[in-house]
Fold this protein.
Amino acid sequence: MGTETKSSNAWLVTTVLAALGLIGAQAVLYMSYYYTPVQISEGTLWVVTPDRGNPINLYESYRIFFIHLPAAYSTALCCGICLVGGVMWLLSKQPKWEALTVASAEVGLVTGAMVLLTGTLWADYAWGSGRIGSGWNWEPRLTTMLILWLAFAALLVLRRSMDTPRQRSAMTAVYGILLGPLYPLVSKAIEIGQTSHPRNFSDLLTAPEIAHTKNLASIALTLALMALVALRFQWNRLGQQIEQERAA
């Protein structure tokens, strides 16, 4: 009875998180088009070209940040959850921590892809020629983000190559711990060498409408993506229970 109650509560929390996130996401979509300024005044928002040429005005292309930034925050959270899940599995050997680590890696793969895709699309406009892929210049920030995304994929692929469930669990835990420091590396990569990526987004918040929309987007989309972590966690736990019953 207690197990059924916990499971019901977990699904309820997941549903509430998803509902709040999706409602917030709809509000963000509305605000990004009808509340935030149609065009930023010249010189307010800009990035420097990779060759240190004239600044480029962002104008309406900044709207993609309402997806890009929350996806980046969610990727950072997934790294942190992988770290916690890995450490807790090594300490307790409880299957639920493996399920949490895997769920975080699965969602991190999705959020990391969102960061890469939205960032690349924006870069194509900001300092590229407009052609798809023209904004990718292998600078440290972009390259380390790609490495992080590949690391999420590697965890999910390599764990399937383990011969026994024990080996699979141990590899998942250790790999999850190694994933933890990767996002801070991505964050610090902007300070390494020449970069065309904005060093901060303080200029983005000069208009209060943009600040309000950005804050709501960060909360709403992060809630929706964390609900996806909770959903995958419940699914992975169900898979573990089925595997245990088959083994018995």
User: Anything to note?
Assistant: The beta strands are 46-47, 56-57. The longest helix spans residues 208-247. The radius of gyration is 20 Å.
